[in-house]
Amino acid sequence: MGSLGFWRLAEADPGWIAAVDPDGTEHTAGDLLTRADRLVHALRALGLRTGDGFCGLVPNGADGLTLYLAALRAGWYYTPVNWHLTGPEIAHIVADSEAKALFVHERYAAEGARGGEPIAPDRRFSFGAAPEFRPVAELTGRHPGTPPSGRTAGATMHYTSGTTGRPKGVRRPLSGLDPDDAAEMTTALLTMFGVTPGRPNVHLVTSPAYHTAVTLFSGTALHMGHTLVYMDKWNAEEMLRLCAAYRVTSSHMVPTHFKHLLSLPEKVRHAHDLSSVRWIIHAAAPCPVPVKRAMLDWWGDRVYEYYAATEGGGAIATPEDWRKHPGTVGKAWPSGALLVVDDEGRPVPPGAHGTVYMKLGRGGFAYKGDPVKTRENRLAREDGEYFTVGDVGHLDEDGFLFLHDRKADVIISGGANIYPAEIENELMVHPKVADVAVFGVPDEEWGERVKAVVEPLPGAEPGPELAAELLRSLEGRVARMKWPRSVDFIDEMPRDPSGKLLKRKLRDPYWAGRDRAI
């Protein structure tokens, strides 16, 4: 094919700074290439064969990037594990993925040890000192950093966030392609947003790399020859500082990041040179229209949106698209298609609500070990097969998609459907709100009533007065029948770092002991 793909680029220019750790440590492409190839030789000697896989419980940085590159070079599946999980949750993913090895950073040694029980002790490895794990250097030390033979493209196998039951591995068939050719094909993702290859492009990684989109966008940027700059933990002012210091050109973010950026004092917001930034790409959660508009007003036409899932995608909205269709998450991207259907699977007309389906990409996917769930989420059409993750939305006359909520989150109160996202979006723009969740709780008369849980911004005093103020702010913007009947306050909203709200953690206690849990 062409000249893109990390391995080709690294061989042509081994001195290129390919990654910068959160502590500022720089890694050349040549160094990463050698580390990844040494790991391939070591794992092959351990018995790993094409189609096998391994897990990594590692923070953002070059260690996790090395695992990713080794898997993609040798035809293996790499599963990055959410480091916020407990030992038993980690063990489920390790066992379910049939991992042949587990890599753990010393930071997560305690839960990693509990989660590593399904793996034989001689196949547990650590970056840094971790009891019950062998140092990675011990595994790779005697192996060469030379290009391995029989190279074939591997893949990542991410696990869904498990909003309904245990997480499921999203497994795609291996392509059998040369790793660089496969990597070059993935660069079509970023070119859809107008992102260009080569240096001096710099991609800022703001969220944990165990998230599908973060892995995909940062990996694609690397394969285009961009430098990856990693953040260890999200901080709004630090993000602006890094953009200026490293002349960042692109980043992948979520709407909660926008809210925190916009809440910075005006002086701080304008203290950093952001002129290098050309592409801020966001997804993962609905973005309230005023928040998106404020970001466009501040950053200019550099804010792009898309709609997709771990399973695939999707839709894309350029800044121009969004300005013409405020609130849209985009139009079907090239080679893709969107479909909105009723409960019988029949397409609905423009403007009508229904379940959103996306056309399956090349090769498709399966939920590992769960053929029933795989089939349930599919819809066969004349032009191919579609899948859904349960979102409710509508298409306008021009084919732009608007999301309303997850099907499972719809509140049915007195027989009326209420979409929490609509109320969340209105409360989110209040100047004293950092984050908000709306959901249904049991009500003997109405079936469900609307509950709001709010994380106030620093300086805002939680209590009855703030609750009343928030409800008053809905006057004239949201029908009273949709207003929350009560408002609770929380120190920190349970979101995963990809931006996805873990609403079950808030909602489940209210439904404990009941037959029906919405």
Automatic annotation (TrEMBL):
Its EC number is 6.2.1.3. Gene3D superfamilies: 3.30.300.30, N-terminal domain of ligase-like. Residues 7-359 form the AMP-dependent synthetase/ligase domain. It is an enzyme of class 6 (ligase). The keyword Ligase applies. The keyword Ligase applies. It holds the Pfam family AMP-binding. Residues 138-174 are annotated as: Disordered. Keywords: Ligase. It comes from the Bacteria. Belongs to the ATP-dependent AMP-binding enzyme family. This is Long-chain acyl-CoA synthetase. It comes from Sphaerisporangium siamense.
